[in-house]
Amino acid sequence: MATRKEVAELAGVSEATVSRVLNGVGPIKESTRIRVREAAERLGYQLNAVAASFARGKSGNIGVVLPHVPKVHLFSTYYFSEILSGIGEAVRESGQGLLLLYRDPGAAYDYVSLFATQRVDACLVLGASSLPHEREAMERLAELELPFCVVDQRYDDPRIPSVCADHVTGSYLATKHLLDAGHRRIGFLNGSAHYSNSADRAEGYRRAMEEAGMAPDAGLIYEGNYSRTSGYEAAAAVRRDLERLDALVCANDRMAIGLIQGLRDAGCRIPEELPVVGYDNSDAASWFDPPLTTVEVPFYEMGKLAAERLLDGAATGRGRHSEVVHERLGTRLIVRKSSQN
After folding, report:
1. Which residue in 36, 65, 166, 248 has a CA-CA distance of 20 to 30 Å to 109?
2. Rounded CA gap, 306 and 340, in Å?
3. HSE on the CB side for 231, CA within 13 Å?
4. From CA 271, how far away is CA 259, in angstroms rounded?
5. Is pLDDT larger for residue 253 or for residue 319?
6. Distance between CA atoms of 304 and 263, rounded to whole angstroms?
7. Cβ–Cβ contacts within 10 Å for residue 43, how many?
8. What is the largest CA-CA distance in the chain?
């Protein structure tokens, strides 16, 4: 495959001139333009579409790519609505446009084409997972040095920018709260293992238990998918283990609420028979009966900060070469009645 240097040598111009001609940037003599195009055609040189899109101009849009989950109303869930509200505020303040896009979480998504076709100037990714096809897509964006940021999901690759919450500390605080209350046999209802959040929350739980001299019991660790329904369904297993359980930590409020509803339907009294702690401090946590002890996560601030960092790089022309962002926001425990028996 021909290179830009070879085109420049054949046309008798600099590589910079070749780039300007093929990207359509700046004033160029017509004779020079013709020579460069003829040389490129003769050598079969193909312009990199992604690089060309950056040279030609901006769309004025910041893209937000969300997972499409059938029968789930993403915009009504606390997690996505809060993050999107923060993103929207930052984009509004910048005067940019906001383009929402859906992806199938079970299939590869062509993020690069969003830039190559000038649909977006920068991209925020929500609900990303550690599945191979999603990790590879993020690595591809990083390799091309495109302006993007992953929100509330982190990868081991330091080239992939992210803004997350400190879920290890959050889960640690939730578990330690129950330990400090005298509970020892503490169970844990986690979300899908495909998310870094799940690994972080499991790590915080494990750390608190081991610090207290308690080895986590694998038989008291349950898995849901962060939905209320999965919490309700987990209630059957938790009820069978009630004699072995002193308390339970849930990896989000939706599962905690579903779990409590399921246990109540089976005749269990909460928190008298099982103190429960949730995670997120969603709107429902404070008005649910009993009010839910939970971990407050700054989702709005997370979305706003991710958008601001991305907009700063894009607006100053440093979007493709700015320092990679790795931000982690703090979490805090909110104590309410559900954990006090």
Report:
1. 166
2. 36
3. 25
4. 12
5. 253
6. 37
7. 17
8. 87
E strands, 214-292, are 221-223, 247-250, 276-277
Which pair of tokens denotes residue 205? 């739980």
User: What sign does the CA torsion over 232, 238, 240, 242 have?
Assistant: negative
Query: What is the C-alpha to C-alpha distance for residues 202 and 222, in angstroms, rounded to an integer?
Result: 11
Rounded CA-CA distance 107/131 in Å is: 10
Full-model pTM? 0.80
Strand residues in 185-235 grouped as ranges (E): 186-190, 221-223
Query: DSSP code of 244?
Result: G
SS3 129: coil
In this structure, the number of other CB atoms found within 10 A of the CB of residue 24 comes to 12
User: What pLDDT is attached to residue 174?
Assistant: 98
3-state helix, strand, coil in the chain (%, to 5): 50, 15, 35
What single letter denotes the amino acid at residue 106? G
Amino acid at 54: F
Q: List, for residues 225-263, the tens digit of each pLDDT value.
A: 999 999 999 999 999 999 999 999 999 999 999 999 999
Mean pLDDT of all residues in 10-35: 81
Residue type, 334: I
* Domains in the chain with CATH codes: 4-47 (1.10.260.40), 61-165+300-329 (3.40.50.2300), 167-297+333-339 (3.40.50.2300)
339: how many CB neighbours lie within 10 A of its CB?
A: 27
Beta partners for residue 303, in sequence order: none
Q: Residues, the chain, total?
A: 341
